[in-house]
Amino acid sequence: MSFLPDEIWSKILEMGAAANRLSYRDLCSLAITCCRHNRLSSDPSIWSILLALDFPQPISSSSSSLPVPSKSLYRTRFERDKARRIAASRRAMLIAESQVSVCKGRLKELEFQLRKEGERMKGALEELSNLERIRRASVALNVWQPELVRGSQRQMVEQCTVPIESRLSNLKMEVNLCKHQISIYKNAYNEQKQRLQESKEALSSQKYNPLEAYHSNVSRTDSGTKRKKLT
Description:
Number of helices: 8
Keywords: Coiled coil
Number of strands: 0
Shape: rod-shaped
InterPro entries: F-box-like_dom_sf (IPR036047), F-box_dom (IPR001810)
Largest sheet: none
Pfam family, one: F-box-like
Structural class: mainly alpha
Radius of gyration: 39 Å
Organism: Dendrobium chrysotoxum
Distance between the termini: 51 Å
Protein name: F-box domain-containing protein
């Protein structure tokens, strides 16, 4: 690079910026290598090209009496855009956290409904079983049986104060309804679990920081190496 004059290198850098082969990161990396590179990378014409490409602005009829250097203007718009992206990321994270919370609340509600319907169906099935036994006892009274058995069956039938057939029909309908409701709640529960998983993945993606992950991996590697050396 030292064999070419600054004018040629400035032109090369301009061409690289115009062709999207040279970014602001490249210029910043170049600037810290030496004084000459710092001077070349600060060329206003290069930053004007990057400014027009990265932060295009509508042409304004009003002109400022004190024009702002291209590099300073690029820095200002970059910081503004960075703040906007950070705010958007925070909003997305809050939305993802809210979705996770809503999904967890909905899952608890569905779990409660499933338990409630399960208990309701269990009670209906128990009553249905008892009524079936009473109906069989009622039928058995019409045939001869030992008096001890007959007395027990008669007592069972007399203790029943509801119309057996009508109540049996109602209980069967209630059991079928419970099964239907449980099926609906289970489907909703599975869908909600899927949504929760997706919301957790979205939240994890929003919280992911490549630098933190890298430093964490490096730290674990270093601690593992130290333990091996100690052993």
